[in-house]
Amino acid sequence: MIIKCTNCEVTGQLYWVCANTVQDKIASFHPEFSQAELALLRNIYSEIVTSNNGYVSSTWCLNLCSTLNQKLTKANAEEFLHKMINRKWLSCKNGKYYMGVRSIVELLQYFKETYQDNLHTCTLCKQVLFYVR
User: Fold this and answer.
1) 3-class secondary structure for the chain?
2) What is the tens place of the pLDDT at every residue in 73-132?
3) Nearby residues of 38 by Cβ (< 8 Å), 6 or more positions away
4) What confidence tens digit (pLDDT) does each residue in 44-54 have?
5) Using an 8 Å Cβ cutoff, are 16 and 102 in contact?
6) What's the rounded Cα separation, in Å, for the pair 56 and 43?
7) Does the keyword Lipid biosynthesis apply (predicted)?
8) % of the chain beyond a pLDDT of 70
9) Among 51, 55, 59, 67, which residue's beta carbon has the most beta carbons within 10 A?
């Protein structure tokens, strides 16, 4: 585990995050969430990272439910997304979902390995930025 200080890219609020430093199948498995919910979250991450603006609309997230291999109703997806916001995995402002502070801290290595060509780095502080204003 590591304790890391980070700012929310959307609000600018400072957070201290206790994060897992081991990235293996056991550590990344979240038994409380369904496979459909995790597939939705992966697709949201992918869209946020590959977008030019660093966010995805709430409408797009809910419409994505119909494209998943597993069944997930829009009502269940909306409830799941609220959980992800409360747990700081995602951030939401004005109907748009942004990368949450926990995702940035705990999944940064995954994002670097998977989306290396799509990541933006601040020229001053050398930190990866997901939301580019």
Assistant:
1) CEEEEEECCCCCCEEEEEECCCCCHHHHCCCCCCHHHHHHHHHHHHHHHHCCCCEEEHHHHHHHHHHCCCCCCHHHHHHHHHHHHHCCCEEEECCEEEECHHHHHHHHHHHHHHCHHHCEECCCCCCEECCCC
2) 899 999 999 999 999 999 999 999 999 999 888 888 888 888 888 888 888 888 888 886
3) 30
4) 999 999 988 89
5) no
6) 10
7) no
8) 90
9) 55
CA distances from 75 to 3, 45, 56, 78 (A): 34, 20, 18, 5
Q: Which two tokens stand for residue 116?
A: 């290396």
Q: Is 102 in contact with 111 (CB distance < 8 Å)?
A: no
Whether the CB-CB separation of 108 and 128 falls below 8 Å is answered with yes
**3-class secondary-structure state, position 12:** coil
Tokens 């609020």 belong to residue:
13
The two structure tokens encoding residue 108: 């940064």
Architecture of the domain made up of 2-129? Orthogonal Bundle (1.10)
Tell me which residue has tokens 């997930």.
72
